[in-house]
Amino acid sequence: MQSGVLDERDLILLEELKRDSRTPFSRLAKLLGVTESAVRKRVRRLVEAGVIRRFTIEYTLPGELGAIILVKVRSPTPVPEVSKRIAGHRFVDRVVEVTGEYDIVAMARAGSVGEINGLIDYIRGVEGVAETYTMIILRTY
What we know:
- The chain is an alpha+beta fold.
- The protein has two domains: about 1-50, Winged helix-like DNA-binding domain superfamily/Winged helix DNA-binding domain (Arc Repressor Mutant, subunit A, Orthogonal Bundle); about 65-135, Alpha-Beta Plaits (2-Layer Sandwich).
- Helices cover about 40% and strands about 20% of the residues.
- It has a four-stranded antiparallel sheet with strand order 2-3-1-4, covered by helices on one side.
- α2 (about 25-30) crosses α3.
- The chain starts with 7 loop residues before the first helix and ends with a strand.
- The model has no long low-confidence stretch (mean pLDDT about 95).
């Protein structure tokens, strides 16, 4: 990608893939007014540049609980170290570092309240974690 700049077609492509990462390249080619080969090259370029980090699915299992866990890190512990430890837990879907009162937001899902509690205990046991605040997800749109 030249100088890290995305063009209008890149932005349209990313928006479509965000909606449905399984959209056929032939359909994307028609939408962008380019060949299917050009779409493949564009997607490969975006992946290699780190713009597209992964292709994934969204799903919900019956009876599954979702949780958002806010984490405060005690200084001088580096936040990325704590983030990586949390991200490695099997119930954690995503970890992001944020500004504000808390340093980390972990999105998690598990089959029971007991499993969520176990995750919270795990996070509280990570060296450098000062505090957590957990919210159970009631509904997703």
